[in-house]
From TrEMBL:
Its EC number is 2.3.2.27. Residues 2-85 form the Deltex C-terminal domain. The lineage of its organism: Eukaryota, Sar, Alveolata, Colpodellida, Vitrellaceae. This is RING-type E3 ubiquitin transferase. Keywords: Metal-binding, Transferase. It comes from Vitrella brassicaformis. It catalyses: S-ubiquitinyl-[E2 ubiquitin-conjugating enzyme]-L-cysteine + [acceptor protein]-L-lysine = [E2 ubiquitin-conjugating enzyme]-L-cysteine + N(6)-ubiquitinyl-[acceptor protein]-L-lysine. The keyword Metal-binding applies. Pathway: Protein modification; protein ubiquitination. Coiled coil: none annotated.
């Protein structure tokens, strides 16, 4: 068998933090937040460990201490969540866009990328 455990993560009480928290909940509900493995922190075997979505385990101390501030954390964690097929809802996307965490998709940029010919291929 494996040993369960308790994990604590920190997100700021801001619109961005609340949007990410909702995505963390969906990630957990889909069984993607944790896995059973070896703990990098304690060395324990067959225990509950994070599963590739980085969670801040301290409210302060900077990225070197798994805390805030950490420029780019929200963008990185959104990429990690997307890798587990956890994408923002429209409401979360609106919040994250308004907060400057993600870029607003415009129809002009979408049509430009859609009409760009495939000339970026490497020539042998």
């Amino acid at each position: 068998g494996y040993r369960g455990g308790s994990r604590t993560g920190y997100l700021p009480d801001t619109p961005t933090g609340r949007a990410i928290a909702q995505m963390f909940i969906r990630c957990f509900e889909h069984g993607h937040m944790f896995t059973v493995g070896s703990s990098v922190t304690t060395g324990a075997e067959n225990t509950t460990v994070w599963n590739g979505v980085h969670v801040k385990t301290k409210p302060v101390g900077g990225s070197a201490n798994f805390g805030y501030p950490d420029d780019g954390y929200f963008k990185r964690v959104l990429e990690e969540l997307a890798g587990k097929h956890i994408l923002p809802t429209q409401e979360e996307r609106d919040v994250l866009t308004a907060q400057g965490v993600i870029e607003q998709a415009t129809s002009a940029s979408a049509s430009t990328s859609a009409s760009t010919p495939a000339t970026n291929a490497v020539n042998p």
